[in-house]
Amino acid sequence: MLSYELLLVYLVAIITLIATPGPVVALVIKNALQNPQNNFKVAFFTICGTNLGSLLLISISIAVILGTTRISSFAISLLSLLGSCFIFYLGFSSLFALFKASKATNMEQSNNFTNQTKLTPRKCFIQGLFLSLSNPKDILFFIAFFPQFMGITDSMALSIILLAFLWILLDFGLLLALSYFAQKAKLERFQRLITLFSDLVLCGIGIMGIIYGISHLML
């Protein structure tokens, strides 16, 4: 028996959570706009990486909910600190590359730089995967979030499978739709500004995460 009321609430909740601007949305749009000639493939592989990361975190969360796995708060805090360092590195390295590009004095230098920094599907996939895994505190979020909707069916196993499947399906679909909208809205002309904003967001989130992680580990 499927609870359609609970299903509707769950769908609205995850659509709101996924569509809210954050580091994953920023990375997907930034990568797509940086490669206008191959934007769909770049966005697709970035999203595949983020979804695999989400699936791994969800799997760990489900294992904790079912009591088959335990994770210490210290381990999560330490992994969160390392993840924040990665987020900062991702934003800072892109900012540095943007700075080098602005220093190019002629078209040939710009073209050479573009070729050197061209995003490959493999690189986009790895970026998306590690960005998604960079905040293991999402495990705690899923642990707190999923039990609220376990009554979506009469079977706990079926409910878990359905909740996880809908999350991944909507996560993939919404991110792909956002990247498609960014391309169709012809935001390429604002590519430098969007890239700069996205990189600053990543750096800011990374710095805040590092400060929080260090302070939490020192308690």
From TrEMBL:
What's in the GO CC field? plasma membrane
Give its localization: Cell membrane
The record lists the membrane-crossing segments as 42-66, 78-99, 156-181, 193-214
* Keyword Transmembrane helix appears in the UniProt entry: yes
Q: Topology relative to the membrane, per the entry?
A: Multi-pass membrane protein
Keywords, ordered alphabetically = Cell membrane, Membrane, Transmembrane, Transmembrane helix
Query: Where is it chiefly localized?
Result: membrane
MF terms per GO, please? amino acid transmembrane transporter activity
Name used for this protein in its record: LysE family translocator
